[in-house]
Design a protein that fits this description.
single chain; alpha/beta; nine-stranded mixed β-sheet; 18% strand; elongated
Length: 633
């Protein structure tokens, strides 16, 4: 377990519970001992035990109050923010789930408050973990561990640092396990490991998603290796959910350290964190004392972890239910019947283009000078991936996920979930921009190894959850540079090619602008490879080809013609499966119409692929690429 002073002194006031003055005294729950075959259950007087009950009601807020403050003579409830120290009206603070309205500081929530916040008091039911040995080592330091444990139970009013509830978030069924830092620093002992494992097993039994809310100093030293092995126990419980294709989500709260951080907290499919929440294996004081260096500001905070690719998103408490509901709907929506394309939204105009959704006859396309196509494909006003997604996705829009969970976050590739024509999809795309600043911020759409690993992570998640993949490609190529090479650029691209060849879900790739070399191919090993009418797809840029073979970059127009990089030429050579029509003057002139044409084309392809199982998809995809460049007979 991380030393409590180490966490308290790490530069933030975040662990201090806000000071509250309440009118009247609350009843403190007095739990019974661990009775074999019985279940903690709240009553009007606290907790009692009900025999052979697998599920009971969640405790109410008043039954879990841990302090009995003297009545305030004014009868007013006030709270002091743990960060800016502003005095806040208590009811306002509570309505915002302990979030300061002035500075946005997220105060601690108890496990019961967390479950009520996410699941609601009425619908949630408490899941009973199995029994564990309280004090397997008969450990004693300044006082016996058994005495510490009993004191924590008496004071906090819960049997361990984890409460498990089953209920719904915005109508979506879910199991939630929440940790309570008040209970011995949220440290993980046998009871906590059993509770997390039970939560995973409940999710597996009912085949519903699992959400884990973490707050812990690490392993519980008083239980020795029993505590250490809970890391393996919980990790294998998460592995079983992976094998079953069940969505798992972590919500990291402050603090999450040690054995919890190095096991179930970071093994879920999606890791979101509260603002300012700290996550790490070793505490900051330990690190500073070991390496004899001052740590950077914000070290191990959620924002630091996001920048380094280790969490998917930093989500304030006010939006957590909304974000979780969107993720849960993406999971549950895969079971819906999406065999036919959803009708146009109410009030949406029918497509202005009467051509088929996907053009497969080169004769349907006009001949254009290849160099002219290059200029249009690079037009700074062409829709970016985000532009397309803002138009083509249904209600919830695009929920972006970040990071490769290894080393970094690449802004040149965006990944996430959305719903297209009623069908949940995993989304991957190169992102450029419309201004010099935007282009620079996104490295002109040129991905680093972090970006390709992020895309690979998204594709593996899609395979686990059974979601189709849509990739939108617009890049001059993979990022060239020292750091990219040090990070294994070639390896990252190669790994994606192999991965995509074996994905057991439908994959549609669309070149929307530039499709440059291996950087584009790393997202294009698909069941259907489409190209927008004015896009290009090439092994090298025309300028690069001209410099190497013509020894003159000015020969780029001739090189473009020779490379046959335009959509009509690619169709003639059967190197793409179809062409997505564009507005008459190009996609850059009408983003809405261009997006509608793209939506029609992608929906058409997904409809064609929806009836195929994983083995058939893989077999046909491999056959498609096997035949490229080979002569018949």
């Amino acid at each position: 377990m991380i030393d409590d002073h180490d966490i308290q002194d790490s530069g933030r006031g975040g662990l201090r519970h806000p000071y509250r003055v309440r009118h009247g005294a609350h009843t403190v729950a007095k739990p019974l001992g661990d009775v074999p075959g019985r279940q903690w259950r709240p009553t009007a007087r606290g907790f009692t035990a009900g025999r052979n009950q697998e599920i009971a009601m969640l405790p109410t807020e008043s039954q879990l109050t841990t302090t009995q403050e003297a009545p305030d003579p004014t009868g007013v409830d006030w709270t002091r923010c743990g960060q800016c120290r502003t005095i806040v009206y208590g009811r306002r603070f509570a309505r915002a789930a302990n979030t300061c309205p002035d500075c946005g500081w997220h105060g601690p929530l108890t496990a019961a408050e967390r479950l009520e916040w996410l699941l609601g008091r009425e619908s949630a039911r408490c899941v009973r973990p199995g029994r564990t040995t309280d004090d397997p080592l008969e450990f004693t330091d300044s006082k016996p561990y058994a005495q510490r444990l009993e004191q924590a139970r008496e004071t906090i009013g819960i049997p361990s640092a984890v409460l498990v509830g089953q209920g719904r978030i915005d109508g979506c069924p879910v199991v939630v396990a929440a940790m309570d830092f008040r209970f011995m620093g949220g440290s993980m002992g046998s009871a906590e490991g059993e509770a997390i494992t039970t939560a995973a097993e409940c999710a597996l039994e009912h085949r519903i998603p699992l959400v884990l809310v973490t707050a812990s100093g690490g392993a519980r030293m008083q239980e020795g290796v029993y505590s250490l092995l809970q890391m393996a126990k919980t990790a294998q419980a998460l592995a079983a959910l992976d094998e079953a294709g069940i969505l798992t989500i972590s919500l990291i709260t402050d603090p999450t350290y040690g054995g919890v951080a190095a096991s179930f907290a970071t093994l879920t499919d999606i890791v979101i964190a509260e603002p300012g929440a700290r996550l790490g294996f070793a505490g900051p004081r330990v690190i500073e004392q070991t390496i004899r260096q001052k740590l950077p500001d914000g070290f191990q905070t959620a924002e630091f972890l996001l920048a380094n690719g280790l969490v998917d998103a930093v989500v304030p408490r006010s939006r957590q239910r909304e974000v979780l509901a969107t993720l849960l709907r993406s999971y549950s929506g895969r079971f819906a019947d999406a065999q036919t394309t959803a009708p146009a939204a109410e009030g949406e105009a029918p497509a202005a283009d009467s051509r088929p959704p996907v053009l497969t006859d080169p004769g349907q396309l006009p001949r254009r000078a290849a160099w002219d196509v290059v200029q249009v494909a690079r037009n700074i006003n062409r829709p970016t991936t985000r532009d397309y997604l803002s138009h083509i996705l249904d209600g919830d829009g695009f929920l972006e996920l970040h990071g490769d969970r290894l080393s970094g976050e690449c802004p040149a590739i965006v990944c996430g979930f959305g719903t297209l024509a009623g069908r949940p999809v995993a989304l991957i795309g190169n992102q450029k921009g419309h201004t010099t600043r935007e282009l620079a911020d996104h490295s002109f759409g040129m991905a680093t190894p972090d970006g390709y690993r992020k895309a690979a992570r998204m594709m593996r998640l899609a395979a686990k959850l059974g979601l189709p993949v849509l990739a939108l490609i617009d890049t001059p190529g993979a990022h060239p540079g020292i750091e990219a090479e040090e990070g294994g650029q070639a390896v990252a691209i190669a790994e994606n090619l192999r991965l995509m060849a074996s994905l057991p879900v439908p994959v549609v790739a669309v070149v929307t602008g530039e499709g440059g070399s291996g950087g584009a191919l790393a997202l294009s090993v698909a069941d259907r490879v489409l190209i927008c009418e004015n896009a290009l797809y090439s092994v090298i840029s025309p300028e690069g080809c001209a410099a190497i073979l013509w020894h003159d970059r000015g020969s780029a127009p001739a090189a473009a013609e020779a490379l046959r990089l335009d959509s009509r030429s690619l169709m003639e050579h059967r190197l793409v499966d179809g062409v997505v029509p564009e507005p008459q003057e190009g996609a850059h002139t009408d983003h809405a119409q261009a997006a509608d044409l793209l939506r029609r084309a992608v929906s058409h392809c997904l409809d064609e692929l929806s009836g195929k199982d994983g083995e058939e998809l893989i077999r046909d995809r491999r056959a498609r690429f096997r035949g490229i460049g080979a002569t018949a007979g």
